[in-house]
Amino acid sequence: MMHTSITTFGALKAAGYQSKSIKNELRDNLISALQEGKETFPGMHGYESTVIPQLERAILSKHNINLLGLRGQGKTRIARLLVNLLDEYIPVVAGSEMNDDPFHPMSRYARDLMSEKGDDTPITWLHRSERFFEKLATPDVTIADLIGDIDPIKAANLKLNYSDERVIHFGMIPRAHRCIFVINELPDLQARIQVALFNILEEGDIQIRGFKLRLPLDLQFVFTANPEDYTNRGSIVTPLKDRIGSQILTHYSMDIQTAKKITQQEAGKLEHRTCSVHVPELAKDILEQIAFTARESEYIDHKSGVSARMSITAYENLISTAERRAIMNKEHETTVRFSDLMGMIPSITGKVELVYEGEQEGSYFVANQLISEATKTLFLQYFPKIEKLKKEGQETPYDEVLHWFFEADAFELSDEASEETYLSAMNDIEPLKKLLQKYQPKVATIDTPFLMEFILWALVELKQLSKKKTSNGMVFNDLYGNYIKGL
């Protein structure tokens, strides 16, 4: 890397600086990173053997890239991580609005300045963090926004004729010369504006109001698109697609462990809590299972996808539910309870696109349904299956627990109960403790109450117990006990 104390073009040449295109820069730095065994796209969990190798091949091929995938698959994040593969600093002609390379000045301003000052042309250094431009494609984006237009005020102030190219006000793309330029949701860009990108990708020709400008723009384009957009709104015009070197498909996490890593990484920004909140691993598993269940659910539009943001915001709400209770009870530490999962519902209802059947049932019902399905799925990974029809005299592992509820009047768990009250209530159910010790003997003591409550909720979902919401919390009952006692 050059020393950024160099301030003139002459000194830059004397130091032996070699300028290179942004695609060569990315390629060379990627090669170095691969040779050193460095992680090229840190934090992109689950993409190590699918998306990242394709990205690396595209960069080595010096391609513009289109990332195609459903929402919440990290497309924009990948584009932002590309910045790390740029040189730390590059030299720019001082005062240039187009990041002109002193060895290849492109703008009228830089060419005039260099012909006047020669080797004394002042140089500034541009850091890699300032070489990232991003534009969300919306139907109202104009050619003037992206490429430029004539600026009458500039013409009047400088007393210039409209045939003088200095009257042009350049748009975002020319100003992003030597930078990474990201256009998010490309299909939303009007077809005529997509057409205007052809020449920039191919030849670096720009036409603004009849000026034919030969601007050999040096850009790394990254486009992102959602396949759902092709059907609903626009699509990518074929000749533009043809000029994008690599189209890379992104995907959701393949397994719960990877999904958990992503959620923990993103929700880790919530460390400043008023109390410490312990989250059992099972709670994290259920939370991720909800997203996996949602992607298969008959109530949810699969084309729209279920974003990883759902798990992240649900996790934040889960911790906040426990934190709120601890604040009210003036406690400095608490553990997430199974009932706290209900606090995640607002994060789920806003993040899923329902199909007609889902709309009929309502988003609150669908969210509860997802929690219920996830609970049943994980219950079978931890505890024996419940037989629907049991033979006469046959015992099941759950008999003692069910008998306890048959004998008890009703068992209530208050949402706002203090840690002490909650633990004492859970410990009262002796058969539940025995069941846990038998099938999950290695569970940490701090996680035991969560698993005990998990068994209760699962037994309700599997039609072995009943539960009823009250103003304070939940009441668990034997399925038929009260009815039989009444008789």
Explain this structure to me?
- There is one protein chain.
- This protein is of the alpha/beta class and about 475 residues long.
- It has 3 domains: about 10-250, 3-Layer(aba) Sandwich (Rossmann fold), CATH 3.40.50; about 255-380, Magnesium chelatase subunit I, C-Terminal domain (Helicase, Ruva Protein, domain 3), CATH 1.10.8.80; about 400-485, Arc Repressor Mutant, subunit A, CATH 1.10.10.
- The chain has 22 helices and 16 strands.
- The chain has helices at about 10-15, 20-35, 50-60, 75-80, 110-115, 145, 150-155, 170-175, 190-200, 225-230, 240-245, 255-265, 280-295, 310-330, 345-350, 355-360, 365-380, 400-405, 420-425, 430-440, 450-460, 480-485; strands spanning about 65-70, 90-95, 125, 130-135, 150, 170, 180-185, 205-210, 210-215, 220-225, 245-250, 275-280, 335, 410-415, 465-470, 475-480.
- The strands form 6 sheets. A 5-stranded parallel β-sheet has the order 4-7-10-1-11, covered by helices on one side.
- It is elongated and about 100 Å long.
